[in-house]
Specification:
Blueprint lengths: L9 E6 L5 E6 L4 E4 L8 E2 L10 E6 L2 E6 L6 E3 L2 E3 L1 E3 L5 E3 L7 E6 L6 H10 L5 H22 L2 H16 L3 E6 L7 E7 L3 E3 L8 H10 L3 E3 L8 H4 L1 H6 L3 E8 L1 H5 L12 E9 L7 H47 L10 E8 L7 E7 L4 E9 L3 H16 L7 H14 L7 E9 L3 E7 L5 E4 L2 E4 L19 E4 L5 E5 L1 H4 L10 H10 L6 H16 L8 E8 L5
Parallel strand pairs: 3-4
Antiparallel strand pairs: 1-2, 1-11, 3-5, 5-6, 6-9, 7-8, 7-10, 10-11, 12-13, 12-17, 13-14, 15-16, 16-17, 18-27, 19-20, 20-21, 21-22, 22-25, 23-24, 23-26, 26-27
Helix pairs in contact: 1-2, 2-3, 2-8, 3-8, 8-9
Length: 559
């Protein structure tokens, strides 16, 4: 419900920093403007430099007044700083910031409709030539701004083409939209009177269209008969008896903003093309050309905004898929380990992206033996995550009694023969028996740290190649034995190579020092100490690699 008396229908045109426009209806008095909707604002402006309680629009005694409610940089009407001021139709409101939001106050007996604007546009030609042209420009910009906020994309583009046909006196207008690959495609066509045409039925004059697309420059020919050259002799021109042709490329905001003559346009800068032709010569005045350029800019903005919306939708879809992939990947990692009589174990994985290329796992082979693995797949993101999932499933098959070296050789050949995978992985795989016997295979992985008798040293260095590099690589297992109290600290290079703000790496020596200070700590406390040292060392620095730890302590033989 409105806070005050009923108010006439007025609009605030919101001009965004990137040039986009939106119309917002004023529905109550006071109508609050400021940063964030949570502050009770009717018009929230997402700019951190704008105060939460910025300004207020009030209706009283038949008029509207704007008040400054605490904007730190001041509130301005038509460039003049104000504390409170009555507003007139067309007044511009700004907030003391050169690259922020601007508002335009629109007031009339009723809010303008599209139909009424088009009627006023049609009547503009009855004025004096100069006044009529100026009025056309004003109405066109007003109409296109309103259309952008109220109609579906296809209707907006149709109205833009209709306006272009009306302004120029052309017989036909076609809008081409850029494709991801290939030339722009005709998406709609219109003829005089706002009547639709089948886009495929309109033969475009390629002699005019091609240079406009290639050079990103408008081609405007007012009378083909006055020319001497390929356009006058073009087959499409002759057969259709065309006298005038207009081809205006629709360019991205980035290219339109740049004033650098050396700027090289990219394919993404071309959004489409506005094409017009007629069997009558079009005597454009200079102002008519400006109107046409303004209209093309509006069409480009519509296409640019539509493309941004599609990109945002695609980004959100990808985020959703990555979230699902992360949930699946995290679900596959051990959340907690059940107690074992002869050893203790803990592990953790921190992905630098939504999904990562590291993993660890623990598998009971039988009542006497337990297998453990830590792996690091080269690369990041979904590709690496898919390979880790494959590896995890493969090594889970070890519970079926497969021999480790044979499994490694099989996985290696599979990855190498599927060259499109383009991934390799380092792994440390071990099988611990109840008596402390350890069978292990190190395929290019960093050597674990062994805590034994109060000392810490790297052990079990790699003697095999990473999997996925060479199909004929051979893999062989080694044996060792753990004594009661021995602790293995396994990690990926995301730990040892973690950088700080000075681009220094954490390194194995620093990890070894942290472990040496916590040799008698429970495995969970040892893991927490390593992570705390990492966080302290890397504080504020971007981490481009996954961090994974797996710590296993042998307690001694148990029945």
């Amino acid at each position: 419900m409105p806070d005050g008396p009923p108010i006439p229908e007025v609009l605030l045109e919101v001009i965004q920093p990137d040039g986009g426009r939106q119309l917002v209806k004023v529905t109550r008095s006071p109508f609050r403007i400021g940063r964030g909707q949570e502050a009770g604002n009717d018009l929230p402006l997402p700019d951190k430099r704008i105060s939460r309680q910025c300004a207020s629009l009030l209706y009283a005694d038949g008029g509207f007044r704007l008040e400054d409610c605490g904007q730190r940089h001041g509130v301005f009407v038509n460039g003049e700083k104000i504390e409170a001021r009555p507003l007139q139709d067309g007044d511009t409101i700004s907030f003391g910031l050169a690259d922020s939001y601007t508002l335009v106050f629109h007031r009339g007996p009723t809010a303008p409709s599209v139909d009424s604007l088009l009627q006023r546009l049609a009547g503009a030609g009855e004025l004096e030539p100069e006044a009529g042209s100026l009025r056309k420009l004003s109405l066109l910009l007003e109409a296109t701004a309103l259309l952008q906020s109220q109609l579906p994309l296809e209707d907006i583009l149709a109205k833009v083409v209709d306006h272009a046909v009306e302004v120029t006196g052309a017989d036909r207008g076609v809008l081409l939209q850029a494709e991801a690959k290939g030339e722009p495609r005709a998406v709609l066509a219109r003829q005089r009177g706002g009547k639709p045409l089948a886009p495929a039925s309109v033969r475009l004059t390629r002699t005019a269209v091609t240079p406009a697309l290639e050079k990103h420059k408008s081609v405007v020919v007012e009378d083909v008969e006055a020319l001497a050259g390929p356009l006058r002799e073009a087959k499409s021109v002759v057969e259709q008896e065309l006298r005038s042709v207009v081809a205006i490329p629709l360019l991205s905001l980035q290219q339109r903003r740049t004033g650098d003559l050396t700027y090289i346009p990219s394919p993404e800068d071309l959004l489409g093309l506005l094409y017009l032709d007629s069997r009558r010569p079009l005597a454009f005045s200079q102002l008519d050309r400006k109107v046409l350029d303004a209209l093309a800019t509006e069409a480009a903005d519509v296409l640019d905004n539509a493309r941004l919306v599609l990109k945002e939708m695609e980004r959100k879809r990808m985020e959703q898929e990555l979230t699902i992939a992360r949930e699946i990947q995290q679900a596959l990692l051990p959340k907690a380990f059940k107690p074992y009589p002869h050893f203790q174990v803990t592990g953790i994985n921190r992905s630098c992206l939504a999904v990562g290329g590291d993993y660890f796992d623990l598998m009971e082979l039988d009542k006497e033996r337990t297998a453990f693995v830590i792996a690091d797949v080269c690369g990041k993101g979904l590709g690496a995550a898919l390979v880790t999932a494959m590896l995890q499933g493969t090594f889970s098959a070890m519970t079926l009694g497969q021999e480790p070296a044979g499994v490694f050789a099989h996985v290696n050949r599979f990855i190498c023969t599927h060259s499109e995978v383009q991934r390799y992985a380092t792994l440390f795989f071990g099988i611990l028996g109840r008596d402390g016997g350890l069978t292990y295979l190190n395929a290019g992985h960093l050597p674990p740290l062994l805590i034994r008798g109060g000392t810490v040293e790297p052990v079990m260095s790699s003697e095999c190649m990473p999997i996925g590099l060479w199909p004929e690589a051979e893999f062989s297992a080694r044996t060792s034995r753990l004594e009661p109290g021995d602790t293995l600290v396994l990690y990926t290079d995301g730990v040892s190579e973690a950088p700080n703000l000075r681009d220094e790496q954490f390194e194995i020596e620093r990890l070894q020092d942290v472990v040496a200070r916590n040799t008698t700590a429970p495995v969970e406390d040892l893991q927490a100490a390593i992570l705390a040292a990492l966080d302290d060392f890397t504080r504020g620095a971007y981490q481009a690699d996954d961090i994974t730890l797996l710590i296993l302590r042998f307690l001694g033989p148990r029945p």
